[in-house]
Amino acid sequence: MKTCSLCEKPTRSRGWCKKHYTRWYRHGNPTTVLRVYRRYPKDTTCSVCGDKHYQSGWCKKHYTRWYTYGNVSTVRDHPPKRRLTSDQALDIRIAREQGATLKELARQYDVSLTVIHHIVHNVTYREAPMNENTD
């Protein structure tokens, strides 16, 4: 079997392997390389935080920051928009403890079920104190 004149792979046509023939066919030169792909081993970690590798040497969080802002260390400059006050969050927690459903509370405050769930489970509005039983 004949081998490529540029590498040791089996030939396809003109004395070149499939890769070099395709480069010649597309670009007119079998040694033209337009893109260099970096492959990372599967066990690679993020170069910033050490989490599991996602793309380009970063974890998903840092890759998304780079893709969105052009910098892996950029964090939003503005605080997230809130439609509810801390007092309303406390009222939601109290109402939930008294038996109100998430759906009722979502309708009452005109927010999603997820927002109510996060308030009740202290994911958001942590500055609003949890209603502790003092029995």
Radius of gyration, taken over Cα atoms and rounded to an integer in Å:
29 Å
The amount of beta strand, in percent, is: under 5%
Which secondary-structure class do the elements indicate?
mainly alpha
| Main beta-sheet strand count, sense and barrel state | none
- Total E-strand runs: 0
Mean pLDDT across residues: 82
**CATH architecture descriptor name of the largest domain:** Orthogonal Bundle
Whole-number count of domains: 3
Describe the oligomeric state of these chains in a short phrase. Answer: single chain
Ranges with pLDDT <50 over ≥5 residues? none
CATH class of the largest domain reads Mainly Alpha
What's the shape?
Answer: rod-shaped
Helix content: 25-40%
In the CATH scheme, what's the topology name of the largest domain?
Answer: Arc Repressor Mutant, subunit A
Helical run tally: 5
The rounded distance between the terminal residues' Cα atoms is 88 Å
Task: Write down the secondary-structure element order.
Answer: HHHHH
